[in-house]
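To whoever picks this up:

The parser on our side crashed when reading a file containing two proteins. I've narrowed it down to the boundary between the first structure block and the second sequence. Both blocks are reproduced below exactly, byte for byte. First block:
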Amino acid sequence: MQANFIRQIAQKNPAEFQIETSALILYQRFFKYIWKEKLKLILASSTIFILSFVQVIIPQITRYIIDVVIPEKRFDLLPWLGLGIAGIALLIGGLNFARSYLMSLVGQQIIHDIRNELYQHLQRLSLSFFENQRTGTLMTRVMRDVDALEKLVTTEVAEIVAETVTFFVIVTYLIYADWKLTVLILITLPVMVYLTQVFGKRMRGVYREVQEQNSEINNHLQETLSNIKLIKACANEGYEIDRFSDYNRLNMEVNLRAVRLTSSFSPVIDFMNHLGYITILAYGSWEVMKGRMTIGDLTAFLAYLNHINQPAKRFSKVMHVIQKGATALERVFQTLDTEPEVKEKANALSLPSIQGNISWENVGFAYLPSQPVISNFSLDIKPGMTVALVGSSGAGKSTLANLAARFYDPQQGRILIDGYDLRDVSLQSLRSQMGIVSQETLLLHGTVKENIAYGKPSVSNAEVETAAKIAHAHEFIIDLPQEYDTLIGEKGVKLSGGQRQRLAIARALIKNPQFLILDEATSALDTESEYLIQQGLQVLLKNRTCLVIAHRLSTIQNADLIVVLEKGKVIENGSHSELIAQGGRYAYLDKMQFPQKSSLELQEKLM
């Protein structure tokens, strides 16, 4: 019966039902982080309870002054009452400080833990996740969304908790003092609770839009600032300014909608509070004139009314904090719930020092189910071999390299390294023994030395210099202003394309890997640099396994085996001379790249 009832509600308004149920789950999960700081929470709660009882005392002092001290002209009591009020004020100030500080400690620790967990989870996610996400969106989740969570614990939300406790303490006392007047005080409360729920639902949706627009602006900033050279080269500054202006305008409009909603809620709550005040004032005045209540009693009740209404007033002001926090929770937990496509087994083996025997056994892979990239691919690379993959763009060459590094898992077949299935070994033990240089040069903002040593941070300066010399980077490095300590800028923007690529090669070599993947590694180099690096690699690659992906056939003529791919399948394989002799696809590609050589061979035959 209950399941059917829930299902019927969900069918009537599925969006609202989903929001309500997911909100409960979100806050339950968030409470687990809060509960880790239970000791600080208990201490903060104790200050809140003490404050609540102290708040009951102040109106009683006021009542006593009005009903006793003034009518009886007790001048002798005024100094003591003044000292008592001053002492209470100091106590309240100290308790407020302790509560605020403790709650801030809790909030800061929570965002520290969640931000760490979120960043660690992002590091564990598969490469495919980042290919489908925008950097600005992820930055917003790690920074702004997590910051919004702190306010769910600290600042004005903590005030709500304190004032709610005070509310129940005071109501308990008032029921004991005068239950009829207490009922009148509370008569507007159900209406305020209802209005809070109605506005809360609307504000949750608005603040979801606010967060989305913030992400859009962050994405636009990240993309345009990181590609500023492209924008200037295309003279598109005006176009990007207009785009940013559009995003900024949408962001302003959605924020204004949130402000209008919040601003319209506050006056409604204030009206209900004033309505309650008028009711108490009218009824209390009647009771005073009838002699059933003193002026001091009425004054105390009016003071208590202010304490009772304070949580509702405060809640109307901080509802935007709560709704922002709920939206942020939704986005943060959505990221934390994302499972990596490439999962490491719980009992994954630590791969021992590899010899370099790499095997693909009937491997099949597709980024999209209906578009296979690799089909029934098999290849066995013996230790110490240099194997080159050749083929048209989209033939699957880089995909095979990515599968070997286990950036993706094949949907069919398996990949072995020294007889170990890649899915059985830990990712760290696998990739720490590999060196990868891709066509897209990946460098960090830092010094030359830091970028070369990134593959193995514990290396010495001498090892960094040796790797740079093998990669033929040392010559240009010593001409830089601070040599190896020169900052190269974001993505190595201060260096040429060839210089960046040579640093990437040095970074791969610093690990002294037994298995090396060169994915168009020399594509950005001039002919002289390419030749020099090839000479260095010939020395380095002795007794090491190397997988080379290249369009420029001049770089792979000395490979032990050349595999020609088309549409994810092997159509030819052999040495350079064997493939030329076959006169197939490889020979055709060679002829297209070296037309002069083909002309000379034709002339020699004619002679």
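<<boundary where parser fails>>
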Amino acid sequence: MHYLVKPNWRKWLVAGIGCLMVWSITPAEAQRKSREKDQQKPKEGVRGVEESLFTEGMKFMMMDEPAKAVPQFQKVIQLDPENPAANYAAATALMKLSKPEEALPFAQKAVQLDKGTNKYYVLQLAELLVKQKRYTDAENLYEELIKKSPENIEYGVELAAIYLFDEKPDKALDMYDKVEKATGMNEEIIRQKQRIYLKQNKVEKAIQEAEKLVASEPGETDYLLEGAELLIANDRNDQAVDWLQRALKVNTDLPQAHVMLADLYRKQGDLEKCSQELDKVFSNPNLEADIKARILSSYIGVVGKDEKARQSAVKLAKELATAHPKDARSQAIYADLLVQQGKKAEARDYYVKAARLDKATYEVWGAILQLDGELNQMDSMLVHSEQALELFPNQGVIWAFNGSANYFKKRYKEAIEAYEETRRLSATNAELMKSVNAQLGDVYNGMGDHQKSDEAYELVLKEDPDNDHVLNNYSYFLSLRKEKLPLALQMSERLVEKNQNNATYLDTYAWVLYVMKDYAKARIFLEKAIQADQNVSGTIIEHYGDVLYQLGEHDKAIEQWKRAKLKGETTERLDKKIATGKIYE
């Protein structure tokens, strides 16, 4: 089988030629070859050291220790300055160390040695140039990279971004078009083009880009909603309505589309259509209560002073709260609207419902306590503040509410403890500190500790000399004590100068005058108080009777005392005055 001999023949023929070559070398040539071999050994040794150092550097990079890698790569470069890979690796390590200035020379060297054939070297250098805002140099690198190979067109996105940094939007648009032509439609590119067109005030072109997105996926309603938002932002409301209706044709169950349409109809003055769209949202049984609450909250934020729209919002809020009695946010939103309508008691009750469902919302507790105070329901304020403090023990404002409730209940020790806690927690809140010190003045007066009461009031007046609460209470309490009467007169005068129609303040001033035995002047200001408020308290009418008595008009005095008794809120000596027709100091 001769055809098997040929391969073996070739094998041995090659081997034979090798033997002939070995034996044909002369002694002189053998000596030269030996010297060459000896000279090659150091080069091979150096190459081994380079590889070892480079490997060590890469190991440190993999361990995320670039600071240890840099010296290894630098040693490689010292041994072989023409090594592009080592320069590239050194630049990479320095970039990881946030040292772009030091990295740049290595990156430049890598590209120079490699003659730009390795695109990763080029990209690294371009990145460093951008960091130094050398945009033109970076652009040149990218342009050359893209020019070299069609497959590099994907880097056109980065190049377009650099054009934008360099304030060359038209070049960026041109590059985006080229990338799209080569790779197909790209959502992020379209969005970027839209931003450029809008910045150039080319709204029509931005809309055309939005149309491209819609055309790419006709069933994707998000693109239609985004397009509608774009149109609304550029005051093209009629077009926006059309886009939203297109979205609803694809999917009728789009809450956002209905809300946007409702707002557009509201702006157009078509409140009937506005209400219809919102009804579609809130009648949707598949929509969670929390989402509905967020939508309603957003709608409330844009209705402004449009009374019909506000009434529609109240109606929807009530329906939402009723339909979802276990959703805290729904109860709180309705409560917010009730407050705006002045329905404080009802609002407080809905806030309480919200707090029971979700105890962790601080703002709800704050609203409850505020309304307790405005409704003058101190028992409720005491209970609610204690409940809130279990959840928010570090909130000074809640301690202040607790202090007020305890003061009203004449639990003076507890009130002081609460106010002192407010002082500790909210020392930097100047307004709250003024309020707390004013209340402490009242509390200490109630305890009969007049020195501490006066000190607390003085602290407030030092910061706010025209504080109405302190000017009124401090001067009145001094008059009752018949102490520091000139100071009381000065404070009450300042008070009525600022508040000439406030019955309570006029009464305070009149009573200071009474204590100082200026009865004629006291009468003038008490009569002003009665004229200022047809529903004045029994205390003011009793004071008026006292002044008339001191002026010798005893019958008129008894008449006023009797009126005061019918009003209530009088002193404990009133019955004796009526019975005897005399004043008992």
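After patching the parser it read the second block fine. The CA atoms of residues 47 and 79 lie 9 Å apart. Residues 1-42 have pLDDT under 50 and may be disordered.
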